[in-house]
Backbone:
C-alpha cells in the first residue's frame, strides 16, 4: 500500500526513471565500490543486510540469490551494464506487480 501510494500518482515514465536511476545507483555502489573492495562475498553480505533492513527477514533467501546473481554477472565479465540491466528489469517487474496486482 505504501509503494502504491508513492508510485501510482507519478505515472509510468517517472516510475521508469526512478527504476533506472535506482538500478544504476545500486550497481555502481555494490559492484564497483563494494565488490571491488571486499569481493563477491562482501558485496553479497552488505547488499543482503541493507536490503533485509528495508524489506524484512522474510525476503532473506530471495535477497541472497539476487545479490549473488548480480555479483556473479559482474565477476563473469558482464560488467556494469549487464548487472544494471538485470537489476532494472527485476525492479521494474516487481514494481509493476505491486502497482497492478
Residues:
Amino acid at each position: 500500500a505504501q509503494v502504491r501510494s508513492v508510485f501510482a500518482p507519478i505515472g509510468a515514465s517517472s516510475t521508469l526513471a526512478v527504476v533506472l536511476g535506482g538500478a544504476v545507483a545500486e550497481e555502481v555502489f555494490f559492484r564497483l565500490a563494494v565488490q571491488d573492495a571486499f569481493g563477491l562475498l562482501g558485496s553479497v553480505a552488505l547488499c543482503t543486510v541493507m536490503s533485509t533492513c528495508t524489506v524484512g527477514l522474510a525476503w532473506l533467501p530471495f535477497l541472497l540469490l539476487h545479490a549473488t546473481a548480480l555479483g556473479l554477472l559482474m565477476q563473469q565479465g558482464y560488467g556494469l551494464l549487464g548487472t544494471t540491466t538485470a537489476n532494472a528489469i527485476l525492479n521494474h517487474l516487481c514494481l509493476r506487480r505491486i502497482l497492478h496486482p
Summary: The mean pLDDT is 92.
